[in-house]
Amino acid sequence: MSGHAQAAVLSQPPYIMKRQRSVTINAFERKWKIQTNANKFKLIAISRRNKYQVDDTPLPYDKSGKFLGLHLSNQGYTSHITQRKAIAQNNLSRLYRFKHMHPDTKRKLYLAYVRSALIYPATPLHTLSPSSISKLQSVQNKATRFITNAEWHDFNTSAQLHRQTKLTPINTLLHEHAKKIWTNIEQMHPQLYLHLTFPQETRQIPHRAFPSSKTKILGPPPTPKYT
User: Across the strands, what pairs with 61?
Assistant: First the structure.
């Protein structure tokens, strides 16, 4: 959820009233001496549709939007996963010309040009369903074969290739990165941490398409997933 100007805005549950939202936007404008551009505002409903307006202009609802590189819709992050996988796969294809390089060099290229695109942003991608994680993991599985020059007829499992290349499965990696983010927030910005945590504790029913990042982090670490 973002309440500031010129950003994708995800509508809050019905207990957030229109007046409260207007106050948040106006306070931000007053502090930074800016004016909200209603044309760059997007409202994506994930629950009941409240009415919002900027400068007496009603804001329509959209089915999808983009916020700091994260593509989202009222159905979750499906479009973001599709785009991230396509970008990472394209970057990996460009590395195939270096297949004769040393494995350590190819691994560094993969980490810099492919995996960095594959796992952005770790939060909230660590909350993805197993099927969505598998889409990202499939790109890394191809990368392990590129790094090791393994052929399909070699009958090496994905787990074996991950151990050989010293790569962490995507689901485990996302969990580790997200946990580090939450830990840093708690240690460096305790008030912000409490502010982000409190609404999640009072919310009774988790949203199917938008699982709680904090709740996921507090749970047990995921079992490494190689497929």
Answer: 43
pLDDT in tens for each of the 227 residues of the chain? 333 434 444 444 433 334 445 445 666 677 777 776 767 778 887 776 677 776 677 778 888 888 888 998 888 899 999 999 999 999 999 999 999 999 999 999 999 999 999 999 999 999 999 999 999 999 999 999 999 999 888 889 999 999 999 999 999 999 999 999 999 999 999 988 888 776 554 555 667 788 889 889 989 999 999 99
Omega within 30 of 0 (cis) for the link into 206: no
pTM for the predicted model, two decimal places = 0.79
Residue 78: left if φ>0, alpha if ψ -120 to 50, beta else—which one?
Answer: alpha
Distance CA 177, CA 172 (A): 9
Q: Is the dihedral of CA 143, 149, 154, 157 positive or negative?
A: negative
